[in-house]
Each structure stands twice: as structure tokens, then as C-alpha cells.
Amino acid sequence: MKAYFIQSDSSATRLELRDVSKPEARPGHLLVRVRAASLNRGEFLRSHGLTQPGAVKPAGTDGAGEVEGTGERVMGRLPGAFAEYALMDQHDFIPVPPNLSWEEAAAVPITFMVVHDMLLGQGNLKRGEWLLVTGVSSGVGVAALQAAKALGAKVIGTSGSAEKLDRLKALGLDVGIRTRKANFHDAVMQATGGKGVDLVVNNVGGTMFAECVRALAFQGRLATVGYLDGSMKSEIDLDALHSKRLKLFGVSNKHRNGEQRAVTVQGFKRDFLPLFASGKLKPLIDRVYDFKDLPEAKARMQSDAQVGKLVVRMP
């Protein structure tokens, strides 16, 4: 079968298409005929560190397809998803609602499970609260916006593109701040009546961290999920952390085992899957590429041109 592999060096990641043997089903896993798979920044951007230098591994982290032998439609975490077949841990199994296409289903799993983790699992976002999303046009940013609005929250988003912010207003973005710099504190305070936001999703990285802390309300929470700027360090205002009783947390599956991931899967099934089945939630797909054009999709992601998710469909 055809499958993409990914390799990283000190500055970049590279893709290679290979002919390999079809994987064999084994206990605790499902053999999935892949119909579509989505791109995730953590794998393709060197600064995120999920693909270590020198490592060659099957490319892809999540997707959707049919279980071999039963034909059941499934989506979920799917290592090696950029291939004709891949194995899915049974802990990661999520049924695909009938109203989702293969491409839509592939755009959901990891992105919206990350969002569930940071909005509900750790962030405890409530109806009526304010959420700030830096880099709101990214795949995780858009999904955070969509999920927060479905939960009844109010959302502020930052982006360097006025066009992207205008597009996201149709998804319910309450306040768009056009900036690529850490200068949004005053605009956030104005929008929230001087209170600050209850939860921040920081997709951008270390250059925005201190400003995110400044923008938090009393008992605010800050989720660190991405490093678009490649900056992995920042100062922490300990006085603000102490006096405002803030909560700072990371959102990553890098070191989680199957049982720990299963907690988020179950939470997603309970809280988000019914919203997808009803049509209240639907992933925003920027572009769909043919399998052979995965390198082109990777280049679009690296250019930061997309709004929402990039998806590859199998022939």
C-alpha cells in the first residue's frame, strides 16, 4: 500500500511516499481503511517538537475511515493516517455521525479533543464567560471558537489578517483584534468592561504569554497549546499569578498514555459528539487535497494561509 513517512532535521520536516506492507490487525486495535486524514501543526512544524530530529515515522495522527471486516464508520486518533490503511487503538474509537462526510470526520478528532481538554477538561469554561484565542484562524483556534460559542461563551480572537477575522465573524466571533504582536491587553479590557477574560487559548507561543496573563480576569485560566512563533520561553508575572489566583496549564498528548487519552475521548463523546450529530457543531475546512498532494497541503500549513483545517482524501 502507499503511505507517507515524515522525517525531521534541525530546521524542517520532510515527507516521503513509500510502498509498504498493509498493517495486520492485532488485539486491542482496529484495522481501518482510511478515507480521509487531516493535518496537525504539531506534527508538521519543526518548532512544535513532536517529530524529533532524525526520526523517520509514518505520517499522520488522525483521520476517518471504515473498519476492515465490518464497514463501520470511525474517526479518531490514527497514527500513520496518511496511508491507505492504519491501525486504531480501541480506546480512540469514535463513531462517525451520519451527517458528517469523510473529510469533515477527519477534521474533527484530535483538534476537537484538544479543544475539549482545554475548554472543559482543564479550562472549566462556563456559559457567559469570555474566551480569548490568540491565532484564532488556526485549526485549533477555529475549533475553540466554534465549541465555545456552542457552549454559550463569548469569544475574542487575534489574527494578523483582517480578512480572516471577518470570515470568522460568521462563526460567532464577538470581537476580532487585528495584531501579530503582544499588544491586545487594552482592547481585551475594553471589550470585557475592564474585567479581563476568563480563559485564554494561546496558539502563538512565548511572545504572547505575558500579554495573555495580563488579559486574564480574577481566577482566570491560561491554556498553552501552540508555538507558531517558535518561542518556547517567557517570563511569568508572579504577582499576577498570586493575586489574581490564576491557573496556567498545558495542553498536549505528547506524554499521555492510552488510558489518559481515553478520558478525553470519553469526554468528547459525552459533550461534543451530540453537537456534531445534531449539526450544531461542524468543522471548518479550509481546503481538501488529494492524497498525492499532501506536500502541497503541508506547504499551505507552513505559510499560515489557511482558516480552519486542511484535509487529505484518499483515492
General description of the model:
The protein is built from eleven helices and 16 strands. The longest helix is centred in the last third of the chain and has 14 residues, at 258-271. It is globular. The model has no long low-confidence stretch (mean pLDDT 94). 30% of the residues lie in helices and 29% in strands. The chain folds into two domains: 2-109 and 255-313, Quinone Oxidoreductase, Chain A, domain 1; 123-250, Quinone Oxidoreductase, Chain A, domain 1. Strands 3, 5, 6, 7, 8, 15 and 16 form a seven-stranded mixed sheet that branches. A hairpin with a 5-residue loop joins strand 5 (62-67) and strand 6. It is an alpha/beta fold.
- State the end-to-end CA separation: 12 Å
| Beta-strand segment tally | 16
- String of helices and strands: EEEHEEEEEHHEHEHEHEHEHEHHEHE
Structural class: alpha/beta
Radius of gyration: 19 Å
Main sheet characteristics? 7 strands, mixed
Chain-averaged pLDDT: 94
Shape: globular
What's the structural domain tally?
Answer: 2
- Strand % is 25-35%
Discrete helix count? 11
CATH topology of the largest domain: Quinone Oxidoreductase, Chain A, domain 1
In CATH's first tier, which class of the largest domain applies?
Alpha Beta
* Percentage of residues assigned to helices: 25-40%
Task: Please identify, by name, the CATH architecture of the largest domain.
Answer: Alpha-Beta Complex
Relevant CATH superfamily of the largest domain: Medium-chain alcohol dehydrogenases, catalytic domain
Low-confidence stretches: none
